[in-house]
Every structure is written in structure tokens, then in C-alpha cells.
Amino acid sequence: MNRGQQVYLAGDTQPLTVSWFWLKRAEGKRELRFVVSTHPYSGIYLVRLGRKRSCIEGFFKTSKHRFGLHRFGQTTKLGVYRWLIKSANCLSIGALD
Hints:
The protein contains two helices and three strands, in the order βββαα. The protein has helices spanning 43-66, 77-96; strands at 5-7, 16-24, 30-37. A three-stranded antiparallel sheet has the order 1-2-3. The protein is an alpha+beta fold.
């Protein structure tokens, strides 16, 4: 399989474009990440989108643990409020991209 190749899943008529990249992790380790889209983008563009998404996800994971939000669930009123604020931040940062 090549990057940017369109594949069809069994029983589905819409093609999916597939690409992948190696994400650098701590201590020189690498992790293989896959990117799938229903739009016919090129493989290089899908890799660019995947790297941006990984960067944004890493930022939110770090900030969530830095501010202690990983300990708060959505079972309390305060937990739901914090979740809504975090979701609004995600939406605003995504709109800037």
C-alpha cells in the first residue's frame, strides 16, 4: 500500500484515503500513526494534517494533567463546567487553524 492510496472497506462504496507517519516520542522512540480521510487528499497533505492533530492532542493532554483536570469527571456540576470550558478551548483553537 502507498501513502495517499484510496482503499474500499468491505461492504462500503465510499473510498477512504490512507496515509501514515512516524511520530517521535521520548527517548528516541517512534510510534506509527495512521491518518484516514474520506476526501481524496494526497498522502503528504494527510501526513501534515496528522502531525498537526498529534501536536494539538499532545498539548491538551499535557495541559489537562498540568492543571489537574484528569482527576475531574463529568459526574459533578463542577466537572461538567470544566469539561465545557475545555471543549470551548478546543473549538476556538481548532477554528484558528
